[in-house]
Amino acid sequence: MANSSKMVHLQCNLNKTASSATYLLVTRHSLPTLLPTVKMAAKSLGVALVTGAAQGLGRAIALRLAKDGYKVAVNDIADKSDQLKTVAREIEQLNGLESHCVTADVSNEAEVEAMVDSVTKTLGGLDVMVANAGIITRGKNVTEYTAEEWDKIFAVNTRGVFLCYKYAAKQLITQGRGGRIIGASSIAGRKAGAYTSAYCASKFAVRGLTQSAALELGEHGITVNAYAPGFMKTALTEAFWDDPDTLLSKYGLAPQPSYKFGEPEDIASLVSYLASKEAHYITGQTISPNGGILSD
Question: Is 55 within 8 Å of 79 (Cβ atoms)?
Fold first, then answer.
C-alpha cells in the first residue's frame, strides 16, 4: 500500500506467563478504519481461536469465521510466525475487527494455557475454539515406527487437541455463556489406511475425546464436535492431486472416476455452521466431508 497512513502496524511483545518460564511471541495488529477495502462489521459475533492457522485448513477456517463476524485469534508454531501475521492481516481486511496472533506449541500445556489467557485478555473473551493443528508421518509400517515418532504424532494430534479442549472449556465455563469447541479428526480416524498407523490412531482418539467432552460439558451450554476431512487439496496431498486413486487404494477404498479432492473452504463452511447458534443441538459428533468416498 503506497499511502503510509494505510499501513498495517505490527507490535511484537514477549509475554511471560506468571505460572511458567515459557515465552510466547504475541503479535497484535491494528488496521486504520479508513482503509477502503475493509468491510466494517457492525458487531462482533464473539471471539474465535483457531490453531494451526498459518496455512491450509486452519487458514481457511480462520478466514471464514472472520467473514462470519468473529474477532479471530490465530495460532501456529514459531517457525510460521510470518505466515501467521499475513493471515491476521487478511482477517482484519475482511471484517475490520481486531485479530490476534499467538505462536505456541499445542502439545505444551503451559503454552496452551498461556495462549488461551492471551486471547481472552486481548480480544475480550472466548466463544469458539477450533483445535485444528496436526501433523502426519507417512510411509512406515507399524514395525518401523519408533516410540519417539509415535509419541510426537500423538503429542500434537491428540494431546494438543485435549489441551485446547481443556483450557477452552475452563474459560467458557468461567464466562458462563456457553460456547463451541471444535476439533480436527480425519477420514483416517474413521477408516484406517496402511502405513499411517500413528496418524490414524491419533485421529480415532480425537473422536472418543470429542464424544466424552460433549457429555461432560453439555450442562454448561458448550457443544463439542469434530470434523473429519476426506482427502483435501492441501500441501499434505499435493503428490496425489493428479492420481487420487492411488491415495484411495492406500485406505482400501474403491477408485472413484468422478472423485475430486476437497478444498479447504469445504471444511471451513462446516466449521462455520458448527460454531453458529443454529448448531446448538449438534454435539458429540464427528462429521466427515469426504466427497462420498466413505459413508456411515
Answer: no
Annotated catalytic residue, options 203, 227, 251, 259: 203
Does pLDDT of 153 surpass 50? Answer: yes
| CATH code of the domain containing 182 | 3.40.50.720
Residue ranges making up the domain that contains 94:
22-232+263-287
Side-chain half-sphere exposure of 144, counting CA atoms within 13 A: 9
Asked, for residue 250, whether it belongs to a domain, the answer is no
Total number of domains in the chain: 1
Please, which pLDDT band fits residue 65 given cuts at 50, 70 and 90? very high
3 state DSSP class of 194: coil
**Of 70, 167, 199, 251, which one is the catalytic site residue?**
199
Domain membership flag for residue 1? no
Residue 195 known to be catalytic: no
* pTM for the structure as a whole: 0.85
